[in-house]
Hints:
Layout: H1 2-11, H2 14-43, H3 54-58, H4 79-87, E1 95-96, E2 102-103, H5 128-138, H6 142-148, H7 160-163
Antiparallel strand pairs: 1-2
Amino acid sequence: MESLRNKYESEGDSYNLMILQTLSDRLAEASAEYLHEKVRKEYWGYAHDENLPVKDMFKARYQGIRPAIGYPSLPDQGLIFKLDKLLNMSNIGITLTENGAMTPTSSVAGLYFSHPKSSYFMIGQITEEQLQDYSLRRGESTDNLRRYLHYAVENQQITCDDIL
Length: 164
């Protein structure tokens, strides 16, 4: 995938690059969803008799969740560095950029929770007071955390430029 991506980039073929990236991202997400189903039904086996229609799968009506770093329920992209220290992702060919993006670009990393009451949630606006408290608990500067948080801090909208 990376060699094809590099080829399209060097040729300036933005259309095929966009198609390749879209397909790669969808395959990565589908693989994560498939693995989550295998975990629920076989590996952990807490929902071995689950038989949900696709529309219920899209609505996450299964037991358990699989939040991923950088997504709404876990917006601090900086946590990927801690996960990398635990897993040493380079052993499977994944490296991180200085901003925490994974390479190859269509890589995903999430956490699995099987508890029957676990559910997805979204972090809303973060106040400056909350950011300072989080900073103390994480042992990191507020400026560094602001760089990795994907959602607005009150009175200061974080843009993609701030994250990248």
